[in-house]
Amino acid sequence: MRSVEARLGKKIRAARTMKDKLSELKDRIAKVQTIQRSANEMRESENDPNSQIKETVGSERFSGLDFLRAFALLMGVLLHALSMYLEPADGSEPKPIAGILFVWIHTWRMPLFMLLAGFFTALSLKKRTLWEYTLNRWIRLSVPFLILWIAIPAVDETADTIFLLPDLVSLLMHHEAPKLRLDHLWFLYYLLIYYSLFAITNMCFGSYVGWLHLSKLTFSKLLLLWLPLLILLAPHYKPTGGIFAEIPTQFGDIHAGSLLFLSIFFIMGMQLMNSQKFLSTLQLRKFIIPVLILFSFVPIALIGWGIMKDEAFSFDSSTEMWVVNGLATCSTVFLVLALIGSANRWFTANGPILSWLIRLSYPVYVFHLVFVYSVGGYLMFAGLDATLVVLISTMAGVIGPIIIYYLFIKRTPLNWIFNGYKHSQFKLKNEATLKRFL
After folding, report:
1. Which residues of 296-324 are buried (b: 16+ CB within 10 A; e: fewer)?
2. CA 211 to chain centre
3. Suppose 167 and one of 106, 136, 149, 331 were both cysteines; which one would form an S-S bond, judging by CB atoms 3.0 to 4.6 Å apart?
């Protein structure tokens, strides 16, 4: 009897040991499966750019591009201050340094802004429907034109009366037909056209045009498709020596060359959003530094060549025209890419200063022109040194709009236009619709 009990005890203990080993084996298998799933997810995220985008939306990865967009707007203030010395209204000689800085900024600023607009469009469409986003763009880009026509006077620093009445005020007071001027906001007008065409073509021909914004941007596509197309369009975008662009001046004006040229950058921006590997390449120091040095020199060399012509910037032969426009376009494209790489590499901290800069850049740009030209024109005719005129007028073009922002915009519904509803202090109780469209 005891031997039977002993054998039963051994079997029970063996069974318990086997059970423990099976349990331990199951735990190990579960750990291995977890590791395998993690590895598979990592491999999928490496191969799927959209998965990486989802992980980086709202993270500091795109803080550099937010900064760059604000920087491009604020550089417009300096650009307009410099423009006063291309052909000075006081009859003095043009300032070469002002011309060089102007052309360098002008070479990349608007194409960069259009590319970033395309990038953030593609990014936003991952969180909103196409029609929600299109309406959002129409509201936030159209209202500044109403402000321009109602409240912002036109400025002519060469006239006895520097300030001219805004369009709608002139209509009410003097019954003059409104000019519906675009001034420095002409690029918003082009963006309205792009967003409208993008919505319509996706609704009607989505299966045929989807590749334009869903495919990736690669160096081969850039060099074999977009760059040649841009060079072909360049003479129509910048007919004056490959430097000075033709842009619309009134609502309803369309210059096909500039509209099509800049639309390429808008499309490239949408493709760039799908191209994390391409973005990573742009951040390499060995790409950024040589490109910035080489292609910053190109527009300066073109200025020198244009000035030396018998008639300034008159490139008569077709060979000269294509050389000039080819070089100018290459410098534009590669400076834009190098600036994107620089911003993503060195401006990654998403702090309060960056947020403040981003919040103020749009209203500063909308309101700056009247301050730059009025202050700059007054100081120029007062005989102040050109360097001081540019510095002071640039500061006026920033400080003046900031005061307007804090007095009339920050705590009012106007901030819904400039910074979006969710970033504004003025809120409504029933805000679901506003959150969707603003």
Report:
1. bebbbebbebbeeeeeebebeeeeebbeb
2. 21
3. 149
User: SS3 of 57, please?
Assistant: coil
State residue 242's pLDDT score. 64
Cβ atoms of 426 and 411 within 8 Å: the answer is: yes
Amino acid identity at 275: S
| Environment class of 281 (CB within 10 Å of its CB; exposed 0-12, middle 13-18, buried 19+) | middle
Do residues 146 and 181 touch, judged by C-beta distance below 8 A?
no
Neighbours of 290 (CB within 10 A): 12
CB 202 within 8 A of CB 130: yes
Distance from C-alpha of 51 to C-alpha of 45, rounded to nearest angstrom:
5
341 CB-near residues (< 8 Å, 6+ apart): 281, 282, 283, 284, 287, 288
Model confidence over 271-305: pLDDT tens digits?
999 998 999 999 999 999 999 999 999 988 888 88
Distances from the Cα of 298 to the Cα of 108, 310, 315, angstroms: 12, 21, 16
Displacement of CA 115 from its chain's centroid (Å):
6
- As to burial, measured by CB atoms within 10 angstroms (0-12 exposed, 13-18 middle, 19+ buried), residue 372 is buried
Task: Compute the distance between CA of residue 227 and CA of residue 264 in angstroms, rounded to an integer.
Answer: 9
pLDDT tens-digit map of 226-259: 999 999 999 888 876 667 788 999 999 999 999 9
Residue linked to tokens 């005061």: 403
Rounded Cα distance, 6 and 103, in Å: 98
> Residue 162 phi/psi, 5° resolution?
-65, -45
Which helix (H) or strand (E) segment holds residue 319: the answer is helix 318-346
